[in-house]
Known about the structure:
single chain
Amino acid sequence: MRIGSSARKGLKIGLSLGVLGQLLSWTSTLFVVRMLNPVDFAFLAVSEMTVGFAIMLSQLGFYGALIRKKELSEKELNACFSLLLLFSVFLYLCLLLSKDFLDVFFERDGIGDLILINGILILISPMQLIYQVMLNRAMRFELIAKVQILMTIVQSIMNLSLVYVGLGYWSIVFSLIITQLLITIIHRYLCAQRLSLTFELARTKGIWEDVNTSFFTAVIWDINSRLDVLFIQSFFASNILGFYRMSKTISEKPVSLVSKVIQSITLSTFSKVAHDRKQLSFYIRDSIFFASFLAFPLFIGLSMTAVNFVPLILGEKWTPAVQMIQVLCLMQVVNSLKDISGIGLFAAGNGKRKVVQAIQAIIITTLAWLLGTEFSIFVALLFVFIGEVLWYVLHIHDSKRYLDLDCVWGVMKVPLFAGTLMALAIYALEQYMDINSDLVDLTIKIGLGFCTYVIAILVFDNASLKKFLSQLRS
């Protein structure tokens, strides 16, 4: 099948190249973390919360709607681009006029300037979105993956270079802006189509029919994803926010690149087969199976070894972040899976149901933070993790009314079981062996965890491993 083979090829290329990109990206990130301090990361967290929310608003929910639209003319693309650009400029002007207020509101001198510089990404967003839509609609997944990996490498090199010359957290901001500009230029070249400003904004009318629910859902999800910074900024000390921001960066690194590849492919692929519920459900289950085999061992392993790699690689000053990293890594298991079924629900035309599920998520997350902040940041994160698991169970149960997801739990049981055995084996090693060297202890834990995971799968369900390897080769 052409659609399925295109998706698998794009996924394979993206994941294969991702190994090199992630290695360099991790090296860059770890080096930057060693050079900076928690206060620097607290500044970045506040800036990213504000600018990230503005970028989401500036896109007006058009991305998913444009991907799903069966026919899309050049005039419609130009109209969408013009509307998005106008709104982006308006949002940036609002930030510009609020610069002094932002310093006072967040109680951080200079945060307004950082937000304005970082806010350049808002102005880039419209052109970037339209070209990404064009490439994804053409199902040029392999090219998208190659560009993403190349830019990850470029950004890593710039990060290392700029932090080395003493730019501090500005190195992260400048390297991100330059990288996004380069991505936009490359996408423009690949699409070979020039976008033009037009006042025929009425041509976007057909897009708004699909945008209404998707945009509202995007707003809720974005607020939900930024509640952490808001609560920590309000209820905990400034350095706690810095420790948290670094912990989140470390825990999200392994999945960030892979998730971008998977999300772009799944939305385009699911939309192509949305008319065939049986085929769509098959793709969803297949994607969840593949993601589970990667997510469970990777994030459970990172969680169980954080006590070793944090002081060894990041330095002793980051030791207070160990427990945060452990919980955040477990959260990434859920985060790496929930988007797949969510995209499937959207592709099937059930966007309104996603709104209900998004409201459920923000209620659960808010309650978890409110309860947790009465204790400590670690307890708060545990409550949030439990809330995310609860929401995911409710999400799958609710989505079964629209998609054939009866076998979803079945495709996850083998990697979950093997991952649990892996965690128990590492825990037993930690309890019964006293190893003074973090390096030796970390090496033994990695080896033990890998062997336990593979052996558990071979013993209890060898067919699952063969299927996973087959997906990699196909």
